[in-house]
Design a protein that fits this description.
Elements: H1 6-10, H2 17-22, H3 26-29, E1 30-31, E2 34-35, H4 37-51, H5 67-80, E3 85-89, H6 97-112, E4 116-120, H7 124-130, E5 133-138, E6 141-147, H8 153-168
Length: 169
């Protein structure tokens, strides 16, 4: 899961890019009381190259990266682990337009590769454009299942307004 708050829940900002990317795989690099730093570096470099993470070094502190590159590091952790389902909570919050475009390309590529990509977002245009299906939920209840890419913001807002009307009554 790529959490909404990458700085508090997705990264250890004082650690290096290499350490953050390979953290979920640490047991794979731990042999006979030692950590295989070369293996860690190879795995991290593969993700940095694949996701085009802009970093001066794998040993650079993650805190020093831009918001978009920090978000890519969080995603890289789980791609390195070869997850089949990725849950992205507000995946483009707090990143610039260029980084958003890169994240969209990555999400589309993952979906084309057959990975499940679940996006949780309050950005309606983003959700509509990036989704095959939309599930509108309120307080744990399913309000509607709608087709992605063709559903309008107005339709979504109508469901939300209807829900609020029932909640008040």
């Amino acid at each position: 899961m790529v959490p909404e708050d990458r700085k508090e829940q997705g990264l250890i900002l004082g650690m290096s890019v290499r350490e953050n990317i390979t953290l979920p795989l640490l047991k794979d690099f731990y042999h006979w009381g030692r950590i295989d730093r070369k293996g860690q570096s190879e795995t991290a470099q593969s993700q940095v190259s694949q996701l085009k993470i802009q970093t001066p070094s794998l040993l650079g502190v993650t805190l020093n990266l831009s918001g978009g590159n920090q978000q890519k590091v969080v995603l890289a952790k789980w791609l390195a682990k070869r997850c089949r389902l990725l849950i992205l909570d507000e995946p483009t919050r707090g990143i610039d337009v260029g980084a958003k475009y890169e994240m969209y390309k990555i999400m589309n590529t993952l979906a084309k590769e057959g990975k499940g990509v679940l996006i949780i977002s309050s950005d309606l245009p983003e959700v509509i454009a990036m989704s095959d299906r939309l599930y509108l939920m309120s307080e744990g209840r399913l309000l509607a299942e709608l087709p992605g890419r063709v559903t309008s913001q107005e339709t979504i807002l109508q469901y939300i307004a209807e829900e609020e009307k029932h909640a008040i009554a």
